[in-house]
Structure formats: structure tokens, C-alpha cells
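wait is this the right file?? whatever heres the structure
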């Protein structure tokens, strides 16, 4: 039977595990196991055929003890409140593990952007902001892009919020295009951060990237940058996939060719010189590094025993279930958790917000150099905890984060 996993329950189990190792007691868990608040909204949108369609949307706030709430907005048919709450809590841990002054939030709309015109998408994006307008704000909750939302959507949302206020409020949202108050380097930040983590991990394990192969699930904003970065490090990318299926060539794929194929046809599938595989087959390929860059719950107790990779670097949020985590740890697989591996995106979102607040913009080199420093420091901190407590890297990353959040709660007072 296929494992049915509630992502928010997974997030709570991960938290509990770290709190137990830290011997923190029940109070901290009781406060942090739930989101602080969430909103469910109905968004009426006039479709191109003249009819009104009502979309369901959410925004959840997990914790803001270390700074304003922060987290992306997902447009996807499978969005649901459990997923949104899980993603909101992972944002708290992610911001804390890299030491940036934010809490955790997340939003989503149940929709299929692939079946909507640009006009419909714009009306939905503006409608979402009208619906959650009082729940967000530059000092309160700062959204960003996530699956199937883009810099252009962020620009519409920022514009709608600014119109409500009567002045430009660029700091309300990050991941905007550079010409609409965005930051240099934001588009590639998550992939670049994942590259820094991979570089540090391989150094830590004394492994040579030039002798390694990688498999990537998901070829969107994140997946394509990761492929490119791996390739530049000398890691041979042998398989990639998207929602339509995967491609495989043990001799290696050229990321630029994969992108051309995807731009031309909408999918990686069909690239010349590759064998077509399913997303399921992709997970059991013989390779050194497995990098999920799509959705959650793709590594489960069913497929974990078949995974041949010795390293898993979680680009996606929540790709591994807690049961799969246990299996992989026992099998000696090193797994870099999402909250550390993909924190580059929110780190440069933070830089974007700082630049918006100062109205002073940095060159790309400065952004990338600051990002590298933060990610390197975070990796080394987590690696140290892992060595000291002999725990898996997810638990070590949670321990780092939870300690910081709990300390802020203690200093400010719980109630
Ligand atoms: P995108 O929407 O740009 O890309 C998502 C990719 O996943 C697409 O290639 C999509 O396929 C693929 N996909 C969707 N459904 C499936 C499926 N059922 N099986 C296989 N592949 C699928 O999203 P991002 O790249 O931005 O995000 C990917 C992951 O990374 C998410 O978990 C997100 O939360 C996480 N993340 C992203 C950050 C960012 O800054 N972008 C920051 C931190 C985390 P198709 O192209 O065919 O639609």
C-alpha cells in the first residue's frame, strides 16, 4: 500500500525529535507544534469566458519570535491547509538555521496556472492580495514565489498591495523582477545556495565532485539552476525530470540542452540521445547524489530502500517522509535537509527586503558573496552539531533552529 503522509504531521514529528534530543521539555513543543494563525479566503475571478470562478486561498503564520513572518505563495491544484501549515513551519526553521531575522509563513491558492491565461492569472494574483491584504505587510508578513508562481506574479502582487496603501511598498513581497524593486541574484539564489551546501558537504566528506553523478527531480526555477551548478562543479548530471516524466543518459546530460528542450516543448521528455523514464524510476537509479526539486512526499518508506544514492540533497521542501528518513539514516545515506539545502532563496529574499527598506541596491557579486558566507557558516554549524550529538543532519539542523527560536521566546516571554 502506498504511504499516505500528512506533511504537517511530518513537520511536527521532525520538531519533536529535535526537542527530545535537546531535552527541552513540553512547553516549547506545545507552542511550536502548531501555526500561530491562518486565513482561508475565497477569491472571485472573472475568467476570460465572462464567468466568475471562485478560488480557495490560504495564508498561514507559524512563528514570528525572530522577525516578521516570511514564506512563499504556491499556485497548484493540490494546495491544501495541511501542506500550507507544514511549509509555514519549515520556513521558521529555515530562517533560523541560516540566522536571518524572520519567522515562518506560507500561502497558497488551489488552481492550475497551466490552464489559465495571463489575464486570469493576474486577476487571481491581485484578488489574492486583496483577500489577504491585512494579514501581510513589509513589517508583518512578507510573501515570495514558490511552485508555479513567478517574479511577474510577485510584481502584480506588490503593485496591488501598493495601490491599497497609496504608495509604493516594495518591501511587502520578495522575488520581484529586478526592474520592479527586485534584487540582483534572487532568481538563482536557491540553486546557488544549494551549490554552496553541496560544495561544503563534499569537502566535509572528502569527496571529489568530478567523480560523482547526480539525478534531479523537477526542472523548474530551482532544478535547472541546480543542474547547471552541478555541471560547473564537474558533477555529471545523468537524469532529470518534470511533471511529464524523466530522461536518462548514464554518460551525462548537458543542462543547456535540457533547458532548450523544456523551453521548446514544455517538458524535458523527448531530449535526443536520452532514454525516457518515469519519476518513480528516477529515484532508484544508480547515482551518487539525488536531488529532489519538485514537491513533498516523494521519498517514502516504499522507495527509500531502493535508493542507490549515498547523498540526498533536498532542494524541494518536505520531499522525504519521517519513515523514509529513518530507513535512509540506517542505510548510511547522508541527507541534507530542505531547511538547510534550499535556504539560499529566503536568504537573498532577505537581502532584497533589506535593499527595499534602504532603497539602495547592491551589485550581484555583493549579493552572491554575502549568500555564500551565510550558507557556509550555516552548513558548518549544523555539521558540528551532527558530529557532537551523532544525529542525522535534519535533526541537527532542527536543533540549531529550535534552540534559537526557543531562546527568543524565552527572552521575550512565552505569552
Ligand atoms: P517551479 O514551479 O519552478 O518548478 C517545479 C518543478 O517541479 C517543475 O519542473 C514541475 O514540472 C515539477 N513537478 C511538479 N509536479 C511534479 C510531479 N508530480 N513529478 C515530478 N515533477 C513535478 O518551482 P520551484 O523550482 O521554485 O520549486 C521547487 C521546489 O523547491 C518546491 O518544493 C519549492 O517549495 C522549493 N523551493 C523553491 C525555492 C525557490 O526560490 N524557487 C526556495 C526554496 C524552496 P513541470 O515543469 O512539468 O510543471
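ok assuming it is, sequence goes like this
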Amino acid at each position: 500500500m502506498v504511504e499516505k503522509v500528512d506533511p504537517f504531521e511530518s513537520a511536527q514529528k521532525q520538531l519533536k525529535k529535535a526537542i527530545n534530543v535537546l531535552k527541552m521539555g513540553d512547553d516549547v513543543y506545545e507552542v511550536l507544534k502548531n501555526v500561530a494563525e491562518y486565513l482561508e479566503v475565497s477569491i472571485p475571478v472573472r475568467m476570460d469566458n465572462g464567468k466568475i470562478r471562485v478560488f480557495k486561498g490560504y495564508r498561514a503564520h507559524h512563528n514570528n519570535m525572530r522577525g516578521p513572518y516570511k514564506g512563499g505563495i504556491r499556485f497548484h491544484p493540490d494546495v491544501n491547509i495541511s501542506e500550507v501549515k507544514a511549509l509555514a513551519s519549515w520556513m521558521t526553521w529555515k530562517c533560523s538555521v541560516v540566522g536571518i531575522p524572520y519567522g515562518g509563513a506560507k500561502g497558497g491558492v488551489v488552481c492550475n496556472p497551466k490552464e489559465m491565461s495571463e489575464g486570469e492569472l493576474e486577476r487571481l494574483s491581485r484578488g489574492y492580495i486583496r483577500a489577504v491584504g491585512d494579514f501581510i505587510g513589509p513589517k508583518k508578513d512578507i510573501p515570495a514565489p514558490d511552485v508555479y508562481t513567478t517574479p511577474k506574479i510577485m510584481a502584480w502582487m506588490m503593485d496591488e498591495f501598493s495601490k491599497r496603501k497609496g504608495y509604493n511598498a516594495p518591501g511587502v513581497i520578495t522575488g520581484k523582477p529586478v526592474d520592479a524593486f527586485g534584487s540582483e541574484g534572487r532568481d538563482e539564489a536557491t540553486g546557488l545556495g544549494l551549490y554552496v551546501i553541496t560544495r561544503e558537504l563534499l569537502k566535509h566528506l572528502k569527496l571529489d565532485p568530478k567523480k560523482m553523478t547526480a539525478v534531479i527531480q523537477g526542472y523548474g526555477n530551482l532544478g535547472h539552476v541546480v543542474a547547471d551548478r552541478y555541471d560547473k562543479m564537474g558533477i555529471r548530471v545523468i537524469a532529470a525530470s518534470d511533471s511529464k516524466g524523466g530522461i536518462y543518459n548514464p554518460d551525462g546530460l548537458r543542462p543547456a540542452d535540457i533547458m532548450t528542450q523544456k523551453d521548446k516543448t514544455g517538458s524535458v521528455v523527448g531530449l535526443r540521445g536520452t532514454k525516457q523514464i518515469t519519476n518513480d524510476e528516477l529515484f532508484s537509479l544508480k547515482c551518487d547524489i539525488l536531488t529532489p526539486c519538485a514537491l513533498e512526499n516523494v521519498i517514502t518508506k516504499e522507495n527509500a530502500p531502493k535508493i542507490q544514492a549515498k547523498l540526498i540533497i533536498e532542494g524541494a521542501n518536505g520531499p522525504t517522509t519521517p519513515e523514509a528518513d529513518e530507513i535512509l539514516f540506517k542505510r548510511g545515506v547522508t541527507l541534507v535537509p530542505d531547511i538547510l539545502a534550499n535556504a539560499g532563496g529566503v536568504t537573498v529574499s532577505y537581502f532584497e527586503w533589506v535593499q527595499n527598506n534602504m532603497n539602495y541596491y547592491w551589485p550581484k557579486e555583493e549579493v552572491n558573496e554575502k549568500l555564500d558566507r551565510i550558507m557556509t557558516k550555516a552548513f558548518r554549524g549544523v555539521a558540528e552539531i551532527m558530529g557532537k550529538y551523532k544525529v542525522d543532519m535534519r535533526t541537527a539542523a532542527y536543533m540549531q533552529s529550535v534552540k534559537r527560536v526557543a531562546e527568543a521566546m524565552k527572552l521575550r516571554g512565552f505569552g
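The CA atoms of residues 95 and 102 lie 6 Å apart. so i think its the right one actually
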